[in-house]
Amino acid sequence: MLSPAKAKEKALKALFARKLIERGWLSALLGYLAKRDELKVRLKYIDDVTLRRTDFKALAANAYYTAKCCPQLPTELAKAAGSLLKPQEALYSLLTALSLAPYACKLQRLGKKVSINIIPEGASLEVNGISVAFNFHCVSSAFADVL
Q: What number of other Cβ atoms are within 10 A of residue 7's Cβ?
């Protein structure tokens, strides 16, 4: 059984996923808890997408950690992803950008000028004028030890 602190954190993560899901959040949450492989939702600013269990978990966790340091950033990134890409591609670009956000927050606290941008290939992280682009397949492994 989960400790009260862990249960509270999991509930908060799920609530942050809700902020990015326009329709189907409760069904997705129940499907996630029931260990369904795929969940269908409508993401705000993006459209209807099919989420794998791991995508739902990543969306919830990354939105939660990103909103802790910059509350409006998940919404801004979802708007940017939705304006550039097809829905399923936008989901992965959003996940990539949200994965970079906690690292960007740490750099900002160190006094560096940091920005995250959604690009068709994924997301880019600019630090003090130097930009690096990440596709959605490699960003989680690139920052696993840093975060």
A: 11
CA–CA dist 21, 122 (Å, integer): 20
Contact 94, 47 (CB under 8 A): no
Q: Please state the rounded mean pLDDT for residues 76-89.
A: 88
pLDDT, tens digit, 9 for 90 and up, residues 104-143: 888 988 999 999 988 887 888 899 999 888 876 665 544 4
Q: Mark 14-35 as b/e (b = at least 16 C-beta within 10 Å).
A: bebbbbbbbebbeebbebbeee
Cβ-contact 78, 94 below 8 angstroms: yes
pTM, two decimal places: 0.82
Residues 66, 102 contacting (CB under 8 angstroms):
yes
